[in-house]
Design goal:
Length: about 250
């Protein structure tokens, strides 16, 4: 590799780290089964993904994507309505693709996680009990049988890259598998409900707004402990705790 001016730490926590070195992203993961899923999912996905340059466990090297992320949780998105609609269209293409051969998390696993995380939030005085209770009631709408689709599984806006009104690629496929289409749409619009309409226009199919709203609550409730334990702040403006408050 030629000399570069600096190494940028994109994200780092106890489980994995991503570094940017010039035009190459180096992903280091303690669990190589997640990397296995990422490599397989990118190979199967019918939408743009980063070029896989090489893999030497525990490191996966990917080429940088052109453009910039659709946005960041907790920050206003500067992307156009056309870009958000293009993201919705790309998600629809993914959801109509052949299912990956491995399963995603089951309905029972999601329900069990919701139960344990809500108990932890209240027992440790992380959030007021009434805030947890109300959002748990909202979240219950997500816990229904769904027709499985090829789901990205962690489709937060920072993982979708755009250039103008076009999608240049989607990154971080380690949670991909069979799952609920509404979960991907909810992940994409978490903290940015003002762009849900644009995403739905691009998606071009009937969506259940109540289920998307339910996934906003469920994803936020079940992620707070992990975020805290890995050095992130879910109480930052516009992030998970604000999402829960906005559901009331």
């Amino acid at each position: 590799m030629t000399d570069v001016e600096e190494v940028e730490v994109v994200v780092a926590h106890h489980e994995r780290a991503t570094l940017r070195v010039g035009e190459v992203f180096l992903k280091i993961d303690a669990d190589q089964t997640r990397t296995d899923v990422e490599v397989k999912a990118m190979a199967m996905a019918p939408i743009p993904t980063p070029e896989l340059l090489w893999r030497k466990p525990p490191v996966l090297a990917l080429a940088a994507l052109p453009g910039s992320a659709l946005g960041r949780l907790g920050e206003p998105s500067t992307a156009s309505s056309a870009a958000w609609a293009a993201a919705g269209a790309a998600v629809r293409v993914l959801h109509e693709a052949t299912l990956p051969p491995w399963p995603g998390r089951s309905l029972d696993e999601k329900a069990s996680s919701l139960d344990s995380e809500c108990t932890w939030l209240v027992a440790n005085d992380v959030l007021p009990a009434d805030l947890v209770t109300r959002n748990r009631e909202v979240a219950e709408a997500a816990l229904r049988p769904w027709k499985p689709v090829f789901m990205h599984g962690d489709l937060q806006i920072a993982h979708v890259f755009v250039d103008g009104g076009e999608i240049t690629g989607v990154v971080d496929w380690s949670e991909a598998g069979q799952g609920d289409a509404m979960y991907d749409l909810a992940s994409l619009t978490l903290g940015h409900p003002e762009h849900l309409g644009d995403v739905i226009v691009g998606y071009g199919a009937d969506v259940n707004h109540d289920v998307i709203r339910a996934w906003w609550s469920l994803r936020s409730l079940t992620s707070i402990r992990w975020l805290v334990e890995h050095g992130f702040d879910p109480s930052s403006p516009g992030c998970e705790i604000d999402v829960l408050k906005s559901q009331l």
